[in-house]
């Protein structure tokens, strides 16, 4: 605490923020604030039914015994990472991998081309032995031979079960596996996350894992990766989910699991770190370092060390009792001006006043948002056009797709944009749809694209396809400069519904004014029952200093 006696009767005091006890409540709230959260399993509740609920989606869990295990072997409602949370205790019998166990199962979830996960868990054994594989699955999915073993204690055989790993692809092999941590410490609570993006064209996945040993007091994530596997993607589409066990049965994880979150997006390190900060209270990386009183204008200047990309709230209270949430907001949303921030205030009239700083990451700015509901015409600034060879049999059209051959409704609101809303797309088409050239990434340090799509195209060859790319706005429309291809070879037969696509944009698009382009192309072979490509709810966000 720093204090300054400004007058004979005024004491002004300042200090760094309180470090709150660890709590999962703030962590859960931070996860729910992310629009890409698809499933949230907290294992909290007044009874077992509530503890098994999906707190975000509708994919509730089931207790799944196998071998000699029974439903009575699993522990629901046991003490979790903090006093405020409950966890599930997974049962694994001694002996071979499938002797017996009880864990949690969900028969059907859907994964998109970009996914992320988070888990808070406590291993109870430093090594898993006694079986052929010696694996303990913490979060796992699979369809046929396509793996999404997002988090395992153990690694591809021969394994002694002493490491934490993540495997995706067409085989449980070292060249598909990212080693996250070695060795595991029994009794320690860990936070582990992962962010995955599938390359459909090349049939690979690039992913990064993040880890913090909570029991050891780690408050800064360690990134492991990025790692690109040798082949195969995780189970994109419908898959089973195992928590504390394999996707089907067996090889359960001997330990406690407190939280599991699944996202339909590729989250970045800043988002995961913010969630860890919410869980731990964060490490105090700044403090108020000075108080300067100016008698000439009767003001007080507070100064503190600041960090780029952060925002600060200055709070005050006449005493330090009570919860800090009851303190008065003096100045909010103060941008960082590294290395030192200074805030000048009129001298308070209180006999004593205490100040506290809150530090939080600056939220991303929305630089493009379009739901196509403004009118039945193209939104302002959006344009369509053709490339050489287009025959004019297909058009991008805004409207309600109900009654046409495509989706029965838009993803949101009445309207979306699609190819020939009232009819199937035509042959020999090559038509683009472009956003306004006002997408400002000139000062962005990161950016993300998200949109919903409904796809029904010939998937037997590469003649009918969709492509998403970022263009340099400078020189358009005449000079087309491609900055990045975000997704190509978009194909597929009619899905059950709209699917969200989300991806972090590469660094090559940063520092520029850009245009987003959707390109639809079809070959000369008629596809009588293929309705085309429909797009809705396009959003680009950017982090800026």
List its salient traits.
single chain, 545 residues, mainly beta, Immunoglobulin-like, Jelly Rolls, 3 domains, 8-stranded antiparallel beta sheet, 3 helices, globular
Structural notes for this entry:
- By secondary structure, the protein is mostly beta strands.
- It is built from 3 helices and 36 strands.
- The protein is globular, with a radius of gyration of 27 Å.
- The protein starts with a strand and ends with a strand.
- Mean pLDDT is about 90; it is low at about 1-20.
CATH level-1 class of the largest domain = Mainly Beta
CATH architecture grouping of the largest domain: Sandwich
With helices defined by DSSP (H or I, 4 residues minimum), what is the helix count? 3
What summary fits the major beta sheet? 8 strands, antiparallel
- Strand segment count: 36
| Average pLDDT level | 88
What's the gyration radius in Å? 27 Å
Distance between the termini: 29 Å
- Helix percent reads under 10%
CATH topology of the largest domain: Jelly Rolls
Strand content: over 45%
**What's the shape?**
globular
- Low-pLDDT ranges: 1-21
SSE-based structural type: mainly beta
Give the domain tally: 3
Write the SSE topology.
Blueprint lengths: L1 E6 L2 E6 L8 H9 L4 E5 L6 H4 L10 E6 L7 E5 L6 E4 L1 E2 L7 E12 L2 E10 L12 E8 L2 E8 L10 E6 L7 E5 L8 E10 L4 E10 L8 E7 L8 E7 L11 E9 L5 H12 L7 E7 L4 E7 L4 E8 L10 E8 L4 E7 L5 E10 L3 E6 L12 E4 L9 E4 L16 E4 L10 E5 L4 E2 L5 E11 L8 E8 L9 E9 L8 E6 L8 E9 L10 E12 L2
Parallel strand pairs: 2-24
Antiparallel strand pairs: 1-2, 3-18, 4-8, 5-6, 6-18, 7-8, 8-17, 9-14, 9-18, 10-11, 10-17, 11-12, 12-13, 14-15, 15-16, 19-20, 20-23, 21-22, 21-24, 25-36, 26-29, 27-28, 28-36, 29-35, 30-35, 31-34, 31-36, 32-33, 32-35
Helix pairs in contact: 1-3
